[in-house]
Design a protein that fits this description.
- With 221 residues, the protein is mainly alpha-helical.
- Helix content is 61%, strand content 5%.
- The chain is elongated and about 60 Å long.
- Residues 162-197 form the EF-hand domain.
- It comes from Drosophila navojoa (Fruit fly).
- This is EF-hand domain-containing protein.
Length: 221
């Protein structure tokens, strides 16, 4: 394999090919081999920042990458994205996040998820982000934690009133069987009719402009 990155010397390029060449060929993804190699090189650059003996990108690096490149700025949602793509439920706990790491397949999984256009797959991902405790449903207390972030200001009474009204509207809309819980099936039924409600509790996916910018940067490699 030819040197992929001219900012690295021949030895480092050879090391990159040795470490990631076989991994790239076994990663399931809609991306081409060249695109996967470019993603692997970006991943490798983050690994190099962790020292000469480092093998992985950290969760903190991944969270910062998601925040800066994809503009997922809500810290709770950002942490959940890291947890879901890394398949590591403990990584949202500050006691664990600093020492956790993200593998290359997980890094590619993040890009695969963000660039998918299928509504069903997007719904599954978004709901898994909102369902922080992996209960299989969203209750009123859980939803309120998201709603509280929608209204900020100096008038506390007004904020409480607006949050309460928003919570009621959400459950009127999504809680179809009126059991005070929003299941995935209820969420999916509403979103299939109104796709604009996909991210009703906060931004999970980047905008198309952001995706196009990231795609261009990756392809430039």
């Amino acid at each position: 394999m030819k040197d992929l990155d001219l900012t690295l010397d021949c030895m480092e390029n050879a090391r990159f090919n040795f470490i990631y060449g076989s991994i790239v060929t076994h990663v399931e993804s809609p991306f081409s081999e060249t695109e996967l190699l470019c993603l692997a090189m970006i991943y490798h650059k983050f690994v190099l920042l962790n020292g000469p003996k480092a093998k992985y990108m950290t969760h903190r690096q991944l969270g910062n990458f998601i925040m800066q490149m994809f503009r997922v700025t809500d810290t709770d949602i950002n942490g959940r994205v890291v947890a879901v793509v890394s398949d590591d439920p403990d990584c949202t706990d500050p006691k664990f996040s600093q020492d956790r790491h993200c593998t290359l397949p997980s890094f590619v999984k993040m890009f695969t998820t963000y660039f998918v256009s299928d509504l069903e797959e997007r719904m599954i991902f978004v709901y898994s982000i909102y369902d922080e405790n992996r209960l299989g449903y969203l209750n009123r207390e859980h939803v309120m934690r998201f709603v509280e972030k929608f209204f900020v200001g100096e008038d506390e009474d007004e904020q409480i009133e607006m949050r309460t009204d928003m919570l009621e509207l959400i459950f009127i809309k999504f809680d179809l069987d009126k059991d005070l819980q929003i299941s995935f099936d209820e969420y999916a039924e509403i979103v299939r009719k109104q796709p604009a409600l996909l991210e009703f509790l906060g931004t999970v996916f980047p905008s198309k402009v952001q995706l196009n910018t990231v795609a261009l940067c990756v392809n430039l490699y």
